[in-house]
Design brief:
Mean pLDDT: 77
Low-confidence stretches: 1-47, 443-451
Order of helices and strands: HHHHHHHHHHHHHHH
Shape: globular
Helix content: over 70%
Oligomer: single chain
Structural class: mainly alpha
Protein backbone atom coordinates (compact mmCIF):
# COMPACT_ATOMS: atom_id res chain seq x y z
CA UNK A 1 0.00 0.00 0.00
CA UNK A 2 1.44 3.42 -0.87
CA UNK A 3 2.86 5.51 1.92
CA UNK A 4 0.27 8.20 1.45
CA UNK A 5 -2.63 5.75 1.44
CA UNK A 6 -5.66 5.87 3.65
CA UNK A 7 -5.02 5.72 7.36
CA UNK A 8 -6.91 3.63 9.87
CA UNK A 9 -8.79 5.96 12.18
CA UNK A 10 -7.87 6.18 15.83
CA UNK A 11 -10.14 5.13 18.65
CA UNK A 12 -11.76 6.99 21.45
CA UNK A 13 -9.66 8.72 24.03
CA UNK A 14 -10.76 7.18 27.32
CA UNK A 15 -9.85 9.05 30.44
CA UNK A 16 -6.49 10.52 29.48
CA UNK A 17 -5.22 12.82 32.23
CA UNK A 18 -5.24 16.33 30.95
CA UNK A 19 -4.47 18.30 34.05
CA UNK A 20 -3.53 17.85 37.62
CA UNK A 21 -0.49 16.43 39.29
CA UNK A 22 1.78 14.51 37.03
CA UNK A 23 -0.36 15.05 33.97
CA UNK A 24 1.52 17.91 32.41
CA UNK A 25 4.28 15.78 31.02
CA UNK A 26 1.95 12.91 30.37
CA UNK A 27 0.37 14.34 27.23
CA UNK A 28 3.55 15.08 25.32
CA UNK A 29 3.29 17.04 22.10
CA UNK A 30 6.13 18.30 19.90
CA UNK A 31 6.77 22.03 19.70
CA UNK A 32 4.15 23.66 17.56
CA UNK A 33 2.07 20.53 17.20
CA UNK A 34 -1.60 21.10 16.60
CA UNK A 35 -4.37 19.31 18.39
CA UNK A 36 -5.62 16.09 16.89
CA UNK A 37 -8.06 16.69 14.05
CA UNK A 38 -11.72 16.67 15.04
CA UNK A 39 -13.30 13.25 14.87
CA UNK A 40 -10.11 11.25 15.24
CA UNK A 41 -10.67 10.64 18.96
CA UNK A 42 -14.33 11.11 19.62
CA UNK A 43 -16.68 9.85 22.23
CA UNK A 44 -17.86 6.98 20.04
CA UNK A 45 -16.84 3.36 20.31
CA UNK A 46 -13.32 2.37 19.34
CA UNK A 47 -13.03 0.69 15.94
CA UNK A 48 -11.20 -2.60 16.12
CA UNK A 49 -8.31 -3.55 13.88
CA UNK A 50 -9.09 -6.32 11.45
CA UNK A 51 -8.03 -9.85 12.29
CA UNK A 52 -5.27 -9.81 9.67
CA UNK A 53 -3.82 -6.52 10.92
CA UNK A 54 -3.93 -7.86 14.47
CA UNK A 55 -2.11 -10.99 13.33
CA UNK A 56 0.53 -8.93 11.53
CA UNK A 57 1.14 -6.75 14.60
CA UNK A 58 1.48 -9.88 16.72
CA UNK A 59 3.98 -11.24 14.21
CA UNK A 60 5.98 -8.02 14.30
CA UNK A 61 6.25 -8.14 18.09
CA UNK A 62 7.29 -11.78 17.83
CA UNK A 63 9.80 -11.70 14.98
CA UNK A 64 12.92 -10.78 16.94
CA UNK A 65 12.02 -12.75 20.10
CA UNK A 66 11.41 -15.65 17.72
CA UNK A 67 14.96 -15.25 16.43
CA UNK A 68 16.22 -15.52 20.00
CA UNK A 69 14.03 -18.37 21.21
CA UNK A 70 14.53 -20.68 18.23
CA UNK A 71 18.25 -20.30 18.83
CA UNK A 72 18.16 -21.21 22.53
CA UNK A 73 18.30 -25.04 22.25
CA UNK A 74 21.36 -24.63 20.01
CA UNK A 75 23.45 -22.60 22.46
CA UNK A 76 25.40 -25.58 23.86
CA UNK A 77 26.04 -26.79 20.29
CA UNK A 78 27.29 -23.35 19.24
CA UNK A 79 29.84 -23.37 22.07
CA UNK A 80 31.21 -26.64 20.71
CA UNK A 81 30.93 -25.77 17.01
CA UNK A 82 32.75 -22.44 17.30
CA UNK A 83 35.05 -23.56 20.16
CA UNK A 84 33.87 -20.65 22.28
CA UNK A 85 33.13 -20.45 26.04
CA UNK A 86 29.52 -20.28 27.16
CA UNK A 87 29.89 -16.69 28.39
CA UNK A 88 31.05 -15.59 24.94
CA UNK A 89 28.23 -17.43 23.18
CA UNK A 90 25.75 -15.74 25.53
CA UNK A 91 27.04 -12.47 24.10
CA UNK A 92 25.18 -13.40 20.91
CA UNK A 93 22.01 -12.92 22.97
CA UNK A 94 23.34 -9.74 24.54
CA UNK A 95 24.25 -8.30 21.14
CA UNK A 96 20.80 -9.01 19.77
CA UNK A 97 19.20 -7.37 22.81
CA UNK A 98 21.48 -4.33 22.62
CA UNK A 99 20.65 -3.99 18.93
CA UNK A 100 16.93 -4.13 19.65
CA UNK A 101 17.35 -1.47 22.33
CA UNK A 102 19.33 0.98 20.20
CA UNK A 103 17.27 0.30 17.09
CA UNK A 104 14.03 1.20 18.83
CA UNK A 105 15.51 4.48 20.01
CA UNK A 106 16.11 5.43 16.37
CA UNK A 107 13.06 3.90 14.69
CA UNK A 108 10.50 5.25 17.17
CA UNK A 109 11.01 8.96 16.39
CA UNK A 110 11.40 8.09 12.68
CA UNK A 111 7.95 6.50 12.70
CA UNK A 112 6.47 9.61 14.33
CA UNK A 113 7.98 11.72 11.54
CA UNK A 114 7.60 9.60 8.40
CA UNK A 115 4.75 7.28 9.32
CA UNK A 116 4.76 3.65 10.35
CA UNK A 117 5.11 1.73 7.07
CA UNK A 118 8.30 3.17 5.56
CA UNK A 119 10.66 2.64 8.55
CA UNK A 120 9.07 -0.75 9.21
CA UNK A 121 9.68 -2.10 5.71
CA UNK A 122 13.28 -0.87 5.65
CA UNK A 123 13.93 -2.50 9.02
CA UNK A 124 12.42 -5.81 7.94
CA UNK A 125 14.55 -6.00 4.79
CA UNK A 126 17.75 -5.39 6.77
CA UNK A 127 16.61 -7.94 9.35
CA UNK A 128 16.25 -10.62 6.66
CA UNK A 129 19.75 -9.92 5.30
CA UNK A 130 21.35 -9.96 8.78
CA UNK A 131 19.60 -13.21 9.69
CA UNK A 132 20.87 -14.88 6.52
CA UNK A 133 24.42 -13.75 7.34
CA UNK A 134 24.14 -15.34 10.81
CA UNK A 135 23.77 -18.73 9.13
CA UNK A 136 27.21 -18.40 7.53
CA UNK A 137 29.20 -16.80 10.38
CA UNK A 138 32.51 -18.74 10.68
CA UNK A 139 33.50 -17.37 14.11
CA UNK A 140 31.70 -16.38 17.27
CA UNK A 141 32.89 -12.78 16.84
CA UNK A 142 31.22 -12.50 13.43
CA UNK A 143 28.12 -14.20 14.80
CA UNK A 144 27.93 -11.59 17.57
CA UNK A 145 28.25 -8.80 14.97
CA UNK A 146 25.51 -10.30 12.78
CA UNK A 147 23.25 -10.74 15.80
CA UNK A 148 23.76 -7.06 16.64
CA UNK A 149 22.66 -6.09 13.15
CA UNK A 150 19.74 -8.49 13.40
CA UNK A 151 18.59 -6.85 16.62
CA UNK A 152 19.03 -3.32 15.27
CA UNK A 153 16.83 -4.06 12.27
CA UNK A 154 14.33 -6.26 14.08
CA UNK A 155 13.66 -3.43 16.52
CA UNK A 156 11.50 -1.78 13.86
CA UNK A 157 8.85 -4.47 14.17
CA UNK A 158 8.66 -4.25 17.95
CA UNK A 159 8.52 -0.48 18.34
CA UNK A 160 6.22 0.20 15.40
CA UNK A 161 3.76 -2.54 16.36
CA UNK A 162 3.26 -0.82 19.73
CA UNK A 163 2.95 2.58 18.05
CA UNK A 164 0.34 1.25 15.62
CA UNK A 165 -1.63 -0.19 18.54
CA UNK A 166 -1.52 3.24 20.21
CA UNK A 167 -2.71 4.82 16.95
CA UNK A 168 -5.73 2.55 16.94
CA UNK A 169 -6.69 2.16 20.59
CA UNK A 170 -6.89 4.00 23.89
CA UNK A 171 -7.78 3.34 27.52
CA UNK A 172 -9.18 -0.07 28.40
CA UNK A 173 -9.31 -0.95 24.69
CA UNK A 174 -5.54 -0.50 24.45
CA UNK A 175 -4.92 -2.70 27.50
CA UNK A 176 -7.12 -5.43 26.04
CA UNK A 177 -5.50 -5.16 22.63
CA UNK A 178 -2.05 -5.57 24.16
CA UNK A 179 -3.28 -8.73 25.85
CA UNK A 180 -4.53 -9.95 22.46
CA UNK A 181 -1.13 -9.20 20.95
CA UNK A 182 0.44 -11.21 23.76
CA UNK A 183 -1.75 -14.16 22.83
CA UNK A 184 -0.51 -14.00 19.24
CA UNK A 185 3.11 -13.08 19.86
CA UNK A 186 3.18 -15.52 22.77
CA UNK A 187 3.03 -18.33 20.24
CA UNK A 188 6.62 -17.46 19.31
CA UNK A 189 8.27 -18.65 22.54
CA UNK A 190 6.01 -21.70 22.55
CA UNK A 191 6.71 -22.77 19.00
CA UNK A 192 10.22 -21.39 18.58
CA UNK A 193 12.14 -23.73 20.92
CA UNK A 194 10.04 -26.65 19.70
CA UNK A 195 10.83 -25.80 16.09
CA UNK A 196 14.46 -25.12 16.99
CA UNK A 197 14.75 -28.45 18.78
CA UNK A 198 13.29 -30.28 15.79
CA UNK A 199 15.48 -28.40 13.32
CA UNK A 200 18.51 -29.51 15.33
CA UNK A 201 17.50 -33.12 14.78
CA UNK A 202 18.03 -32.72 11.03
CA UNK A 203 20.69 -30.04 10.77
CA UNK A 204 23.01 -27.93 12.91
CA UNK A 205 22.49 -24.53 14.50
CA UNK A 206 23.02 -22.77 11.16
CA UNK A 207 19.83 -24.35 9.87
CA UNK A 208 17.92 -22.47 12.55
CA UNK A 209 18.92 -19.17 10.96
CA UNK A 210 17.93 -20.43 7.51
CA UNK A 211 14.42 -21.09 8.82
CA UNK A 212 14.36 -17.64 10.46
CA UNK A 213 15.38 -16.03 7.17
CA UNK A 214 12.46 -17.67 5.36
CA UNK A 215 10.03 -16.53 8.06
CA UNK A 216 11.41 -12.98 7.82
CA UNK A 217 10.83 -12.91 4.06
CA UNK A 218 7.23 -14.06 4.50
CA UNK A 219 6.50 -11.43 7.18
CA UNK A 220 8.03 -8.67 5.04
CA UNK A 221 5.79 -9.63 2.13
CA UNK A 222 2.75 -9.65 4.42
CA UNK A 223 3.52 -6.19 5.79
CA UNK A 224 4.11 -4.80 2.29
CA UNK A 225 0.80 -6.05 0.93
CA UNK A 226 -1.58 -6.00 3.89
CA UNK A 227 -0.58 -3.51 6.62
CA UNK A 228 -2.00 -0.01 6.04
CA UNK A 229 -0.57 3.24 7.30
CA UNK A 230 -2.07 4.21 10.69
CA UNK A 231 -0.49 7.63 11.25
CA UNK A 232 -2.09 10.32 9.11
CA UNK A 233 0.25 12.94 7.56
CA UNK A 234 -1.42 15.65 9.64
CA UNK A 235 -0.36 13.86 12.85
CA UNK A 236 3.30 13.40 11.93
CA UNK A 237 6.09 15.42 13.50
CA UNK A 238 8.16 17.68 11.32
CA UNK A 239 11.36 19.56 12.00
CA UNK A 240 14.95 18.54 12.58
CA UNK A 241 16.45 15.83 14.77
CA UNK A 242 16.45 18.07 17.84
CA UNK A 243 12.73 18.71 17.49
CA UNK A 244 12.10 15.02 16.87
CA UNK A 245 13.77 14.18 20.19
CA UNK A 246 11.82 16.83 22.13
CA UNK A 247 8.93 14.45 22.95
CA UNK A 248 11.41 12.02 24.51
CA UNK A 249 12.72 14.72 26.83
CA UNK A 250 9.16 15.55 27.85
CA UNK A 251 8.36 11.90 28.51
CA UNK A 252 11.47 11.38 30.62
CA UNK A 253 10.55 14.46 32.65
CA UNK A 254 7.30 12.76 33.62
CA UNK A 255 8.12 10.91 36.86
CA UNK A 256 5.18 8.51 36.54
CA UNK A 257 5.99 7.60 32.92
CA UNK A 258 9.62 7.00 33.88
CA UNK A 259 8.57 4.89 36.85
CA UNK A 260 6.47 2.60 34.68
CA UNK A 261 9.25 2.49 32.10
CA UNK A 262 11.87 1.39 34.65
CA UNK A 263 9.50 -1.08 36.30
CA UNK A 264 8.87 -2.69 32.93
CA UNK A 265 12.58 -2.66 32.09
CA UNK A 266 13.68 -4.43 35.25
CA UNK A 267 10.79 -6.89 35.03
CA UNK A 268 12.00 -7.71 31.54
CA UNK A 269 15.50 -8.23 32.93
CA UNK A 270 14.10 -10.82 35.32
CA UNK A 271 12.40 -12.53 32.39
CA UNK A 272 15.42 -12.37 30.12
CA UNK A 273 17.79 -13.73 32.75
CA UNK A 274 15.64 -16.86 32.50
CA UNK A 275 15.86 -16.80 28.69
CA UNK A 276 19.65 -16.47 28.73
CA UNK A 277 20.39 -18.97 31.51
CA UNK A 278 17.70 -21.63 31.18
CA UNK A 279 19.33 -23.58 28.30
CA UNK A 280 22.38 -24.20 30.48
CA UNK A 281 20.50 -24.54 33.78
CA UNK A 282 17.99 -27.02 32.40
CA UNK A 283 20.29 -29.00 30.13
CA UNK A 284 23.73 -28.86 31.73
CA UNK A 285 22.75 -28.79 35.45
CA UNK A 286 19.47 -30.71 35.54
CA UNK A 287 20.12 -33.01 32.57
CA UNK A 288 17.19 -32.10 30.31
CA UNK A 289 17.51 -32.94 26.62
CA UNK A 290 17.08 -30.19 24.01
CA UNK A 291 13.59 -31.54 23.31
CA UNK A 292 12.65 -31.61 27.03
CA UNK A 293 13.99 -28.10 27.47
CA UNK A 294 11.95 -26.96 24.48
CA UNK A 295 8.79 -28.49 25.95
CA UNK A 296 9.37 -26.83 29.34
CA UNK A 297 10.10 -23.51 27.68
CA UNK A 298 6.90 -23.81 25.66
CA UNK A 299 4.91 -24.70 28.79
CA UNK A 300 6.16 -21.55 30.51
CA UNK A 301 5.13 -19.52 27.49
CA UNK A 302 1.66 -21.05 27.62
CA UNK A 303 1.42 -19.91 31.24
CA UNK A 304 2.44 -16.40 30.20
CA UNK A 305 -0.18 -16.38 27.44
CA UNK A 306 -2.95 -17.64 29.72
CA UNK A 307 -2.23 -14.98 32.34
CA UNK A 308 -2.09 -12.38 29.58
CA UNK A 309 -5.61 -13.34 28.61
CA UNK A 310 -6.72 -13.33 32.26
CA UNK A 311 -5.35 -9.80 32.45
CA UNK A 312 -7.07 -8.64 29.25
CA UNK A 313 -10.38 -10.48 29.51
CA UNK A 314 -11.00 -10.56 33.27
CA UNK A 315 -8.87 -8.02 35.16
CA UNK A 316 -8.96 -5.06 32.73
CA UNK A 317 -12.17 -3.12 33.30
CA UNK A 318 -12.74 -4.69 36.72
CA UNK A 319 -9.46 -4.07 38.54
CA UNK A 320 -7.30 -0.95 38.42
CA UNK A 321 -4.33 -1.54 36.13
CA UNK A 322 -1.96 -0.43 38.90
CA UNK A 323 -3.38 -3.05 41.27
CA UNK A 324 -3.00 -5.79 38.66
CA UNK A 325 0.58 -4.68 38.00
CA UNK A 326 1.42 -4.63 41.70
CA UNK A 327 0.02 -8.14 42.20
CA UNK A 328 2.00 -9.44 39.23
CA UNK A 329 5.25 -7.97 40.55
CA UNK A 330 4.60 -9.50 43.97
CA UNK A 331 4.28 -12.97 42.44
CA UNK A 332 7.48 -12.46 40.44
CA UNK A 333 9.35 -11.56 43.64
CA UNK A 334 7.97 -14.62 45.44
CA UNK A 335 8.88 -17.01 42.61
CA UNK A 336 12.38 -15.56 42.26
CA UNK A 337 12.90 -15.88 46.02
CA UNK A 338 11.91 -19.56 45.87
CA UNK A 339 14.34 -20.15 43.00
CA UNK A 340 17.19 -18.55 44.91
CA UNK A 341 16.48 -20.63 48.01
CA UNK A 342 16.45 -23.81 45.93
CA UNK A 343 19.62 -22.82 44.09
CA UNK A 344 21.65 -22.27 47.27
CA UNK A 345 20.43 -25.57 48.75
CA UNK A 346 18.16 -24.34 51.52
CA UNK A 347 15.72 -27.14 50.68
CA UNK A 348 18.43 -29.70 50.09
CA UNK A 349 19.12 -31.18 46.67
CA UNK A 350 16.29 -30.27 44.31
CA UNK A 351 15.57 -31.81 40.94
CA UNK A 352 14.25 -30.47 37.69
CA UNK A 353 10.55 -30.48 38.67
CA UNK A 354 10.62 -27.96 41.59
CA UNK A 355 12.82 -25.58 39.61
CA UNK A 356 10.54 -25.92 36.58
CA UNK A 357 7.47 -25.17 38.72
CA UNK A 358 9.02 -22.01 40.16
CA UNK A 359 10.05 -20.83 36.69
CA UNK A 360 6.52 -21.53 35.44
CA UNK A 361 5.04 -19.32 38.17
CA UNK A 362 7.53 -16.55 37.45
CA UNK A 363 6.95 -16.62 33.70
CA UNK A 364 3.17 -16.84 34.03
CA UNK A 365 3.03 -13.75 36.22
CA UNK A 366 4.79 -11.85 33.44
CA UNK A 367 1.52 -12.17 31.53
CA UNK A 368 0.09 -9.60 33.94
CA UNK A 369 3.21 -7.47 34.39
CA UNK A 370 4.30 -6.91 30.79
CA UNK A 371 1.02 -5.71 29.17
CA UNK A 372 0.39 -3.25 31.99
CA UNK A 373 3.93 -1.84 32.00
CA UNK A 374 3.33 -1.04 28.32
CA UNK A 375 -0.27 0.19 28.53
CA UNK A 376 0.10 2.52 31.52
CA UNK A 377 3.02 4.62 30.19
CA UNK A 378 1.72 4.68 26.60
CA UNK A 379 -1.52 6.20 27.85
CA UNK A 380 0.53 9.20 28.98
CA UNK A 381 1.89 9.81 25.45
CA UNK A 382 -1.02 10.49 23.16
CA UNK A 383 0.99 12.66 20.69
CA UNK A 384 4.27 10.73 20.68
CA UNK A 385 3.43 7.03 20.56
CA UNK A 386 6.50 6.17 18.50
CA UNK A 387 8.90 8.00 20.83
CA UNK A 388 7.22 6.55 23.93
CA UNK A 389 7.32 3.05 22.46
CA UNK A 390 11.00 3.53 21.63
CA UNK A 391 11.84 4.59 25.19
CA UNK A 392 9.95 1.64 26.65
CA UNK A 393 11.61 -0.84 24.34
CA UNK A 394 15.09 0.65 24.61
CA UNK A 395 14.99 0.63 28.40
CA UNK A 396 13.75 -2.96 28.57
CA UNK A 397 16.27 -4.36 26.13
CA UNK A 398 19.23 -2.38 27.45
CA UNK A 399 18.58 -3.53 31.00
CA UNK A 400 18.03 -7.06 29.70
CA UNK A 401 21.29 -6.90 27.76
CA UNK A 402 23.15 -5.90 30.93
CA UNK A 403 21.52 -8.68 32.93
CA UNK A 404 22.24 -11.37 30.34
CA UNK A 405 26.00 -11.84 30.91
CA UNK A 406 25.54 -11.77 34.69
CA UNK A 407 23.65 -15.08 34.70
CA UNK A 408 26.77 -16.91 33.55
CA UNK A 409 29.29 -15.11 35.71
CA UNK A 410 29.86 -18.13 37.98
CA UNK A 411 30.10 -20.66 35.14
CA UNK A 412 27.74 -23.29 33.78
CA UNK A 413 27.45 -25.47 36.89
CA UNK A 414 25.25 -23.34 39.15
CA UNK A 415 21.83 -21.71 38.88
CA UNK A 416 22.55 -19.20 41.67
CA UNK A 417 23.49 -16.26 39.36
CA UNK A 418 20.25 -16.66 37.40
CA UNK A 419 18.16 -16.65 40.58
CA UNK A 420 20.07 -13.68 42.03
CA UNK A 421 19.60 -11.60 38.87
CA UNK A 422 15.92 -12.50 38.73
CA UNK A 423 15.24 -11.56 42.32
CA UNK A 424 17.30 -8.36 42.24
CA UNK A 425 15.60 -7.24 39.03
CA UNK A 426 12.14 -7.98 40.41
CA UNK A 427 12.87 -6.05 43.60
CA UNK A 428 14.16 -3.02 41.68
CA UNK A 429 11.10 -3.13 39.39
CA UNK A 430 8.82 -3.14 42.42
CA UNK A 431 10.74 -0.27 44.03
CA UNK A 432 10.46 1.85 40.86
CA UNK A 433 6.75 1.15 40.60
CA UNK A 434 6.01 2.00 44.23
CA UNK A 435 8.50 4.85 44.63
CA UNK A 436 7.95 6.71 41.34
CA UNK A 437 4.43 5.83 40.21
CA UNK A 438 2.95 5.95 43.74
CA UNK A 439 -0.20 4.08 42.67
CA UNK A 440 -1.97 4.67 45.98
CA UNK A 441 -2.01 8.43 45.18
CA UNK A 442 -3.19 8.09 41.58
CA UNK A 443 -6.62 9.43 40.84
CA UNK A 444 -6.59 8.70 37.11
CA UNK A 445 -6.07 4.95 36.89
CA UNK A 446 -9.62 3.73 37.12
CA UNK A 447 -11.26 0.42 36.36
CA UNK A 448 -13.25 1.71 33.48
CA UNK A 449 -10.70 3.43 31.32
CA UNK A 450 -7.62 5.51 31.03
CA UNK A 451 -4.86 5.35 33.53
Amino acid sequence: MPEGGASISKSTHNGMPGAGAGAGAGAVAPPGAAAAPPGRRTGGGAPRAGALVTFILGGLTAVTPLAMDMYLPALPEVTRSLSAPAATVQLTLTACLAGMALGQLVVGPMSDRWGRRRPLLVGLVIYVVATALCAFAPTVELLVACRLAQGLAGAAGIVIARAVARDLYDGVALARFFSTLMLISGMAPILAPLIGGQVLRFTDWRGVFVVLTILGVLLTALVWTKLPETLAPADRHGGNVREALAPMRGLLADRVFTGYMLAGGFAFASLFSYVAASPFVMQEIYGASPQTFSLLFGLNSIGLMIMGQVNGKILVGRVRLDKALGAGLAVVVAAATALLLMSVGVFGETGLVPVAVALFVLMSSMGVVMPNTQTLPLMRARHAAGSASALLGTTSFLIGAIASPLVGIAGEDTAVPMAVVQLASALVATACFLGMCRPWKSGTNTKGGGV
